[in-house]
Specification:
With about 210 residues, the protein is an all-alpha fold. It folds into two domains: about 60 residues, Arc Repressor Mutant, subunit A, CATH 1.10.10.60; about 140 residues, Orthogonal Bundle (Tetracycline Repressor, domain 2). The protein contains twelve helices and no strands. Helix 2 crosses helix 3, helix 2 packs across helix 5 and helix 5 packs parallel to helix 9. The longest helix has 29 residues. It is elongated and about 60 Å long.
C-alpha cells in the first residue's frame, strides 16, 4: 500500500501554483525577447532560454508562437481593461468624468506597462504576420473603439457634446496614443511624450471646446 502511495506521489503533476508561475515566466520572457529582437526574429527556443526553462516547455502552454503572442495580449493588455469594455457611465456621472475615471489611468501607464511596446511590435511585424494584427485588432483595438462609440452616443443623447465629431470619428480619442507610440520609439525617443497628458488634453478639446 505504501509503495502504491509513493508511486502516485512521484507521478503527480505540477501544482496549479507552479503551473501559473511557469506560464507567467514564459509570458514575461516572451515579451522581453519580442521587444528586443522583434517577433519575426524570435524563436520559441530564445524565449525558453530567457525564461530559464527547457526548450520544449513553452509548447506545453502555447502550442504556437501566435498563441504565445495572444497570451501576452491577454495578460498584459486585455486583463487590464476587460472590466472597462463593458462599463457605462452611471446616471449621476458625465461621460467625460467616466472616461477620466476609467480610461485615463490605463492611458497614463500605457508606456511603462509594456502595452506601448506590444503595439509597436504589431506595427513593425504586422505586415509579415497578419495574425498578430487580427489578434490585436479584435482583442484590444476594436473593443476600445466600440466603448468610445457608446460613450459618444450617450454624451450626445444627454446633451454633453456640442457636436457629433466623436461619434462620427471615435478614433480621435485614441489618436494621441498612437502618436505617442510612434514618437517615443521612432521619431524622437529622446524627448518622450506623455500619453496620459495627451489623452487628457484630447478629452478637454472634445468635451469642453
Amino acid at each position: 500500500m505504501s509503495g502504491q502511495t509513493n508511486v502516485k506521489a512521484r507521478t503527480r503533476g505540477p501544482s496549479l501554483e507552479k503551473t501559473a508561475e511557469t506560464r507567467s515566466k514564459i509570458i514575461n520572457a516572451a515579451l522581453t525577447v519580442f521587444i528586443e529582437k522583434g517577433y519575426a526574429n524570435t524563436s520559441v527556443a530564445d524565449i525558453a532560454g530567457s525564461a530559464g526553462i527547457a526548450k520544449g516547455t513553452p509548447y506545453r502552454y502555447f502550442p504556437t508562437k501566435e498563441q504565445l503572442f495572444e497570451g501576452i495580449l491577454e495578460d498584459v493588455v486585455v486583463a487590464a481593461v476587460a472590466d472597462i469594455y463593458n462599463r457605462s457611465p452611471s446616471d449621476d456621472e458625465t461621460v467625460e468624468v467616466f472616461l477620466r475615471r476609467l480610461v485615463l489611468p490605463f492611458m497614463r501607464d500605457f508606456e511603462t506597462s509594456g502595452r506601448a511596446a506590444i503595439a509597436r511590435l504589431v506595427i513593425s511585424d504586422g505586415a509579415g504576420f497578419p495574425t498578430l494584427v487580427n489578434t490585436y485588432r479584435t482583442k484590444v483595438y476594436e473593443p476600445i473603439i466600440d466603448l468610445i462609440k457608446r460613450c459618444a452616443a450617450t454624451a450626445i443623447e444627454r446633451g454633453e457634446l456640442k457636436n457629433r465629431a466623436l461619434a462620427d470619428c471615435p478614433y480621435l480619442l485614441v489618436a494621441p496614443l498612437w502618436i505617442g507610440i510612434v514618437h517615443n520609439a521612432v521619431l524622437n525617443p529622446g524627448n518622450r511624450l506623455d500619453m496620459g497628458a495627451m489623452f487628457e488634453t484630447q478629452l478637454d478639446l472634445i468635451f469642453n471646446s
